[in-house]
TrEMBL record:
This is Porphobilinogen deaminase. HAMAP family: Porphobil_deam. InterPro entries: HemC, Porphobilin_deaminase_cofac_BS, Porphobilin_deaminase_N, Porphobilinogen_deaminase_C, Porphobilinogen_deaminase_C_sf. Residues 2-206 form the Porphobilinogen deaminase N-terminal domain. Belongs to the HMBS family. The porphobilinogen subunits are added to the dipyrromethane group. Its EC number is 2.5.1.61. It is an enzyme of class 2 (transferase). It catalyses: 4 porphobilinogen + H2O = hydroxymethylbilane + 4 NH4(+). Keywords: Porphyrin biosynthesis, Transferase. One of its GO terms (molecular function) is hydroxymethylbilane synthase activity. Residues 221-291 form the Porphobilinogen deaminase C-terminal domain. Pfam families: Porphobil_deam, Porphobil_deamC.
Length: 294
């Protein structure tokens, strides 16, 4: 029996079910155990005030270390980049679409929103990149789950909200998307759309069970993105966008990493290519480049 710990939100549940079903298809028995987290308990305070990076994952990690669960399913973009003693990411399954989307009133796109329109997003990364487009729209902080955020549009409190496409896909709510934002305008959060299945580092039976869920291309991409973030020493709420993809280079597959860093005077964007089997080097190199030119 594999004990799988998950947060209680609808999205976390959908993600846990994906992993549980994949393991069941491989012949394992899986028990899903819901676990409360600080981020879920306090839905009102700005994330930065109640602990920032990690508020959604610390209870799950505690449960792993206490041997109350065997695996924890995380959204990789909510997982702090610093490794934890005794734990490891046993599998990174194939990624969902990593892009951000707009859910706007009246089916509008970003370019169709009138000047002065109010866009709800609590993420400095999204606000910085949207501001840099010079559309004359205004970003305002919002929190809450996907339902709450879309509700702000329906009730007319904001004209639009920006969300991760992956979350809406997993909740079966893609029909509400009015525009998928091109990464040339808005780069997603490092790790967005990917799941990380965490387990105890020495748990060989669980590591073996998780191995078939692994997608090497996704791991390479998110490793580069998360290394970029770690090197920039930014937490989950800092204005860093990143997207890596395995592309066909002259001598075979290579990793292409794009990065965006929000600053007082705008957003700096750079990209670089590197070896698929050396994502850490690529992430660091692009981070240094982004910093040098500031
Ligand atoms: N910060 C909350 C969060 N964490 C993961 C997702 C979506 C799923 C994913 O990115 O894998 C979301 C919601 C959102 O940003 O719209």
């Amino acid at each position: 029996m594999i004990r799988l710990g998950t947060r209680r939100s609808a999205l976390a549940n959908a993600q846990a079910t994906l992993v549980a079903d994949a393991l069941r298809n491989l012949g394992h028995e899986v028990e899903v155990i819901p676990i409360a987290t600080t981020g879920d308990a306090d839905k009102v305070s700005p994330v930065e005030q109640i602990g920032g990076t990690g508020i959604y994952v610390s209870s799950l990690r505690d449960a792993l270390l206490a041997d109350e669960i065997d695996i924890a399913v995380h959204s990789l973009k909510d997982l702090p980049t610093a490794p934890i003693d005794g734990l490891t990411i046993g599998a990174i399954p194939v990624r969902e679409d990593p892009r951000d989307v707009l859910v706007a009133r009246d089916g509008l796109t970003l370019g169709e929103l009138p000047r002065g329109a109010l866009i709800g997003t609590g993420a400095p990364r999204r606000a910085a990149q949207i501001d840099a487009l010079g559309l004359g729209v205004e970003c305002t902080g919002v929190r809450g789950n996907v339902d709450t955020r879309i509700g702000l549009v329906t009730s007319g409190k904001v004209d639009a909200v920006v969300l991760a496409r992956a979350g809406l896909a997993r909740l079966g709510r893609l029909a509400e998307v009015t525009e998928t934002l091109d990464p040339i305008q808005v780069l997603p959060s490092p790790g967005q759309g990917a799941l990380g299945v965490e387990c105890r580092a020495g748990d060989t039976a669980i590591l073996a069970a998780l191995a078939p869920l692994e997608d090497p291309a996704t791991r390479a991409a998110v490793t580069a993105e998360r290394q970029l973030l770690a090197t920039l020493e930014a937490g989950c709420t800092a204005p860093v966008g990143a997207l890596a993809e395995v592309v066909e280079g002259e001598d075979g597959p290579e990793l292409w990493l794009r990065g965006a860093l929000g600053q007082d005077d705008g957003v700096r964007r750079l990209s670089a290519n590197g070896a698929v089997d050396d994502p850490v080097v690529l992430g660091k190199a692009l981070a240094y480049e982004l910093l040098e030119r500031t």
